[in-house]
Amino acid sequence: MNVLKQALIIVLATGFSFLLAGPVSAQSVAMSSAAPAILPLNAGNIDIDEVALSARELESYGAGYPGGAEQLETFLRSNVVYPELAKENNFEGTTIVRFKVLEDGSLSEYSVQQSTHEICDQEVIAALRDMKKWVPAKIRGKNVATWCSVAVNFKMTF
User: Fold this and answer.
1) d(CA 150, CA 130)
2) Per-residue exposure over 147-156, b if at least 16 CB sit within 10 Å of its own CB, e if not
3) Measured distance between the N- and C-terminal CA atoms of the chain, rounded to whole angstroms
4) How many CB atoms lie within 10 A of CB 30?
5) Highest mean pLDDT, choosing among 59-68, 121-130, 132-141, 148-157
6) Domains in the chain, start-ordered, CATH in brackets?
7) Confidence of residue 57 (pLDDT cuts 50, 70, 90)
8) SS3 sequence, 81-138?
């Protein structure tokens, strides 16, 4: 009889959406972009104070796991266990869980976006709940809440 091996492949989904405390404006949406800022070229004189202010305002980035995607993958591989019932019934697929990273880096509001099976989904959520705090997202130098997702592939190999 062949021995079943389990493989978990973890992928950090790259979609982030920032939650802003105030109303959304064109300026606030532009500040949440992950793309580098490009200052317009002017034929006239450039005010140095204006450029410095723009650089401070652009201190923005998305939330992330301490140590980066590699450490996140290591954590999930160590903490997500392929449930026995799922293996016995050949449940395979990708579970995607969306969650909020709060201003202090703690995680909340877990929701399954794509399900392998409820027992697999709960295993991923349990691992996320045991996770240490993330580095929160920043907009204009201020910590903000944001949404992130992780995907865990449950696949049996023979």
Assistant:
1) 14
2) bbbbbbebee
3) 10
4) 12
5) 121-130
6) 8-38+45-157 (3.30.2420.10)
7) low
8) CCCHHHHHCCCCEEEEEEEEECCCCCEEEEEEEECCCHHHHHHHHHHHHCCCCCECEE
